[in-house]
Design brief:
Blueprint: H1 6-16, E1 25-26, H2 29-35, E2 38-43, H3 53-62, H4 66-71, E3 73-76, H5 80-91, E4 96-101, H6 106-114, E5 118-122, H7 126-140, E6 143-144, H8 151-167, E7 173-177, H9 182-194, E8 199-205, H10 210-217, H11 242-248, E9 251-255, H12 257-271, H13 277-288, H14 290-293, E10 297-302
Parallel strand pairs: 2-10, 3-4, 3-6, 4-5, 7-8, 7-10, 8-9
Antiparallel strand pairs: 1-2
Helix pairs in contact: 1-8, 3-5, 3-8, 5-6, 8-9, 9-11, 12-13
C-alpha cells in the first residue's frame, strides 16, 4: 500500500475524468447549526448512474488491455456496482456480464438492463454469486471485477475524496459510510497522500458493524444480521482494502437505525436532494458525536442517490 503516491492517484483521476462527473460540494447552514460544525457534502448522488462506484468501475476497465476489454467484464452485485460496471462498459463499447441474486429488486435489474448489462440471476447466497461469476469468466474469457476488493476500483473511488480535498484543503476530517470497504479505503489513501493533518472516519450501522469489529480484532469479521435501512452497507471488507483501512482510518462510528433515519430526513428536507440511506449514515455519525466534531470543518462523501422508495418507511415507525 505504501507504493501509492500523489502522482499515481492523480493519474487515475486524469484517466477516468472523461467518463465521470466532477460532482458538486454542498453545504447547509441549518445542518451546520444542528451539528455545531461546518460540513461539506461531496455529492456523489449526482454522479453518473447515481453513485461513487462509477469511478472505480471505470478505472478498473480502463486498466485492462484492449484485448481483455473486448472480452468484457463480469461482477456480482445486487445494486450500485452492477449499474456502475454496466454503464462504464457501455461507455467503452464492451460487454458487461452482471450476476444478480434472484431476490434483487426489479428496479435495480431494470436499471442494469438500461445500461446494457447482461444479467444472469442466481440464488441469493455469496457462494452461488461467486460460482456463477466464475462460470462466466471461464466461458466468455471476461475479466472479473470485484465491487470493492480490487486495487484499481479502490483508487478510482478515492478520486471523490481527491476532488473534495482539492476544493477544501483544510478539512479536519473526512467521513464516509462503510460497506464493502472500497470507498473508505480509497478515501483514506487520498486523505493520507494529499493532506497533513486530516483524519478519516468511517460510519456504520450497529446492525452491520463488521468493519468496527474488524478494526478491534485485527481480522475481517462477518455480520450475523443484515437488518438495516442502509442496504448498501451489508457487504463485508476484503483482503485488499482491509490493510488500507487498518493503516489509515482513525476510527469507525456506529449508529442506530433511528439515527440514520433522522439524518436521512434532514438531508432530504433541508438540502432538497435525494440520497440513499447508506449515505445518511455519515451525517448520523457526526450528529451522534457532536462534541467530538464541534467547530471542525468536515467533509462527507455522499455515496449515492439510488433509492428504492418501496423499501423505505421513514414516517410511520
Amino acid at each position: 500500500m505504501d507504493d501509492f503516491t500523489q502522482k499515481s492517484l492523480l493519474q487515475v483521476h486524469e484517466r477516468i475524468k472523461p467518463y465521470i462527473h466532477e460532482t458538486p460540494i454542498l453545504t447547509s447552514s441549518l445542518i451546520n447549526q444542528i451539528g455545531g460544525c461546518s460540513i461539506y457534502f461531496k455529492c456523489e448522488n449526482f454522479q453518473k448512474m447515481g453513485a461513487f462506484k462509477m469511478r472505480g468501475a471505470t478505472n478498473a476497465i480502463l486498466q485492462l488491455s484492449k484485448k481483455d476489454q473486448q472480452k468484457g467484464v463480469v461482477t456480482h452485485s445486487s445494486g450500485n456496482f452492477a449499474q456502475a460496471l454496466s454503464l462504464a462498459a457501455k461507455s467503452l463499447g464492451i460487454p458487461a456480464y452482471i450476476v444478480m441474486p434472484s431476490t434483487a429488486p426489479q428496479v435495480k435489474k431494470d436499471a442494469v438492463k438500461t445500461y446494457n448489462g447482461i444479467i444472469t440471476e442466481c440464488p441469493p447466497t455469496l457462494k452461488n454469486r461467486e460460482e456463477t461469476a466464475q462460470n462466466i469468466v471461464e466461458k466468455k474469457g471476461a475479466t472479473f471485477v470485484h465491487p470493492s476488493n480490487d486495487i484499481d476500483v479502490i483508487l478510482g473511488q478515492g478520486t471523490a475524496a481527491l476532488e473534495l480535498i482539492q476544493k477544501k484543503p483544510n478539512l479536519d476530517c473526512v467521513v464516509t459510510p462503510v460497506g464493502g470497504g472500497g470507498l473508505i479505503a480509497g478515501t483514506a489513501l487520498a486523505v493520507n497522500l494529499f493532506t497533513e493533518k486530516t483524519k478519516t472516519f468511517g460510519a456504520e450501522p450497529f446492525e452491520v458493524d463488521d468493519a468496527y469489529r474488524s478494526l478491534i480484532s485485527g481480522k475481517i469479521e462477518i455480520n450475523k444480521s443484515s437488518n438495516t435501512i442502509a442496504d448498501g452497507l451489508k457487504t463485508q471488507l476484503g483482503d485488499k482494502n482491509f490493510p488500507i483501512i487498518q493503516k489509515h482510518v482513525d476510527s469507525i462510528i456506529r449508529v442506530t437505525e433511528d439515527e440514520i433515519k433522522i439524518a436521512l430526513k434532514l438531508i432530504w428536507e433541508r438540502m432538497k436532494i435525494i440520497v440513499e440511506p447508506s449515505s445518511a449514515v455519515a451525517l448520523a455519525a457526526i450528529l451522534k458525536k457532536k462534541e467530538d466534531f464541534k467547530n471542525q470543518e468536515i467533509g462527507i462523501i455522499i455515496s449515492g442517490g439510488n433509492v428504492d422508495f418501496n423499501q423505505i418507511n421513514l414516517y410511520n415507525n
